[in-house]
Structures are given as C-alpha cells and as structure tokens.
Amino acid sequence: MSPAPFEQGKATAFAPASAANVAIGFDILGFSVDVLGDSVTVERTDKPGVVITGSTGVVTDIPRDPEKNTAGRALLAMQQALNPGFGFSASIHKGIPLGSGLGGSAASAVAAVVAANALLDKPLSKIELLKFAMQGEAVSSGSLHVDNISPSLFGGLVLTVGIDNPRVKQIPVPNGIRAILVHPHLFLSTKQARGILKRDVSMSDFIWQTANLAGFISGCYSNDLDVIRASFEDVVIEKQRSQLIPGFDAVREGAMANGALGCTISGAGPSMFAWSLDADAPRVRDAMVAAFKKAGMQTDAWIVPISSTGAHVVT
After folding, report:
1. Are residues 42 and 157 in the same domain?
2. What is the pLDDT of residues 154-199, one digit of tens each?
3. For residues 21 and 18, what is the distance between their CA atoms, to the nearest angstrom?
C-alpha cells in the first residue's frame, strides 16, 4: 500500500487474474496469475460519490452505473464506510475476459480499491481493502466470496477463512511447480455456474473433500508432491460444472497423462488449469490445448509460476 496520498490526486493500480477454488477449496482457496490482469485509474473528484468513465482493453461494454459495476460498487463501499469528503472517478482497462473463470470481476474491484487507497489521507490495510472489494465481486456473482479477491489482492496461493472478519493465509508452493492455464473462447457467467450447484452434499463426499483439502495444504507446507497429487481432486463441484465445458474430460485426461499433479476448472470456468513440475508443463499445456481443439474450441494458454506480489499501484 502507498504510505501517503498521491499529490496529483490520481493513481493507477494493477490487479492480477486468479484461479479460484483450486479443486478442493470451493470459495476459500485461489492463486494469482500475473500474466493477465486489470488496471484501474482512480482520480479524486470534488463531489462525493463514484463515477465510472469507461473501459478499454478486451472488454469495453461495461455498466456505467457504479452500483452495477464491480469496481464502482467496491469504491461506493469505501465511500460509504469512510466518508472521505471527496469522490472517485474511475476508468478501467480490462486485461481479463469476462465470463472466463479467471477472476475478471474480482480484479477490477481489487485494482479499484488499491488505486483509491493511494489517494486516502490515511491508507488502509489489505484486509480492510478486501472487505470493500468483496462488495464489488458480489455484483458479478450474486454472493460474497473471496476465492478470487484474496489471491488477486495478496498474491500467490491464498486461503481465506471467514467473510465478516476474513483471515487470509498465503500458502507456500513447492519449488519447481508451475500452473498451466488454458482459456477456451467461451463465455460462462459466474451466476450461471453457481446456479446449477446442488445445495446439499453427501456425508461421504464431505469427508472425502475435507480430507483432500487438508492433504493438499499439508503437501504444500511439507513439499510432498505425492500428497499434493493424491489430494488434488474435487468430488463436489467439478462433476456438476464439467458439463458446461466442452471437452472437459479429454482435457483433464490429457493433462494427467502428461505428468500433471492435478487438473480441474478455474473458478466457475470455462478456463481450466493444471499444476505440474516445470519440465512437464509444456507437454501438459499442449495436451490440454489439443483436447480443447478436438472439441472445437480455440484457446489461449499460459505457463506461469504460482507466485506474485498481488495487486499494486503502478503510477
């Protein structure tokens, strides 16, 4: 965070994309992806309130009403809580496609509050900013959750416990692991992907999923790749959402056959990701891309480290 307000009354912040859930941590786990992100420029205005001036980049048709805009709603939450005596004007540069499962709505909200924070007389902590950004994310998804917000703000692999009083823990990732991210050119709304989910879970699936989450986090802390591989399986959400993604089974099978530790849906989808050792990453990526192509889907693909500084002020 900036230690003091910017004299010129304007700041731009960048917030990275993110892959939420990480298979076994629905709504509580996610990791940041620096190769993509959104930037938001916020300027002080004399009149209190929030104005959205427009958007550039891969998405230009965004709501101008701040109540219906993820960045705008986050800034309104700051205004209402802090009553700073001035307003915010925000312009957004979208580097993340909407409906991609890469945390585009979260990144805009995060970048907005980080930029605005640099303009406050007394900048806030990241935890305080997290609560405001959550209000923006709710515009897109229809509910308060932090699995995209927290990694975009803090960077790296992040576990968040709680909503009203969130506690954030950055989880270490063993050296040599890379994330392979593949985005099929398909729009899938978060609300749609959440809307198909069942509201109850069998006891056996609950136990299995809990064991996988515990094993996965334990493996990350202990550098135990075998435990990570054995635990990297979603038995609750994936089987419901996979039907929305053409070629899902073949993409996952291709990744696993080429050395992936795990492969699943990024957030609400349709993007998918895998983790693998650095040496295996190109083969995993190629297999995933080929399987999507066979299903008739064009894709973008990246191999990225699972670490980043998170959102930050750039100018």
Report:
1. yes
2. 999 999 998 888 999 999 999 999 999 999 999 887 777 777 788 8
3. 10
- Which range of residues forms the domain containing residue 84? 10-170
> What is the tens place of the pLDDT at every residue in 245-303?
999 999 999 999 999 999 999 998 999 999 999 999 999 999 999 999 999 999 999 99
- How far is residue 216 from each of residues 142, 222, 225, 242, 261, measured CA to CA in Å? 29, 10, 9, 21, 11
| pLDDT for position 3 | 40
The confidence score (pLDDT) of residue 60 equals: 86
Residues 32 and 157 in one domain: yes
Question: Which pTM was predicted?
Answer: 0.92
312 occurs within a structural domain: no
Q: Beta 50-57 vs 87-94: how paired, if at all? A: parallel
Would you place residue 4 in the very low, low, confident or very high pLDDT band (cuts 50, 70, 90)? very low
Residue 111 placed within a domain: yes
Phi and psi at 201, nearest 5°, equal -130, 140
* CATH number for the domain that contains residue 159: 3.30.230.10
**pLDDT at position 2, please?**
40
